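Re: the multi-chain job from yesterday

Posting the exact lines I submitted so nobody has to dig through the queue logs.
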Amino acid sequence: MSLLPPIVTIILGLLMGYLGQRARMCFVGGMRDWYLVRDTYLVKGLFAFLVFSFVGFAIFYFLSPAIKTFPWFLNGSAVFDQKWTSIGISAIPSNLLPVPGDPITWSPKAASHIILAIIGGFGLGFCSTMAGGCPFRQHIMAAEGSRSAITYLVGFAIGAIIFHRFLAPLIKIILG
Amino acid sequence: MRITALIAGSIFGLMAALAQAFFRIIPPPAYGICIACHMRDMVNWIAAHIYPIYGLTGGGALKIPGGPVSYKFPLLTIVGILIGAFIASRIHKEFSWKTMRVSWQRPVPEFFWGLFVMISALIFGGCPIRTALKTAYLDITALIGLVMIFIGVIIGCEVIKKKVRR
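And the result, structure tokens for all chains:
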């Protein structure tokens, strides 16, 4: 059943691409339009996303074992406890530890995670605004035939390799 | 029916929760929809299979950096989005070759914006969509990230205002 996630995500992606193209959906663009001209069309989409995913998680928490870590700041610590005993770290998980994903995922230092969130979040907001939309919007513009967005995607793909080759080990040494 | 951002956002939110709950897009949690992470998984999977040293550790097993859900075969959200958006723009006759006019969104600078956005996204562990998804999963660090994205947007807007005025 290892092919289930790719098949599900490609169908999900098709639907997202279609709806996103029709709605001109953009997450950073919502904040930008609201700040520049107080236009709330796109920012409504961001709030709808937050509310509906929260409601979805809250309902499915009772239906599916895959969401048993749902309020992460309460139930996430079990995940860290389990992982840390297997790799030999003894620490008490803090409520501030994030969902796995950043380069120092299993580090017990909450401050390092917050520093990464501050640097990454700022870079994400600033660079996306300058580029003219969040990554999702750029993918849709590339499919609409924008040459700028296509070179953006090339940079996007190369960025992943540069990050994992050179930057992630560095961040692990400095903050991990 | 006209699809507004409000409708699209609510459908995306429900789909992200559904994908994790019933279609095993886990671990890591809150991974149902993410552009940067799924792109990273796909690129790293391809790179590791073309050039094995890239992901090789110890006993010969490929160790691919990314979400554990994509070790065997990567998530294909990116491919789906590109095809879906292409179909939508073809159906509604909005497809045309174009280039952005403003100087900082010409193809060459845009390449570097893409590079920087991907690097910042991976430092933080998710693109704006996954940041919102993690916030809905009640992760406090992600909330800090969302606020920082907003501050970044404000400063970006000020820079653009200055550039336009000149």
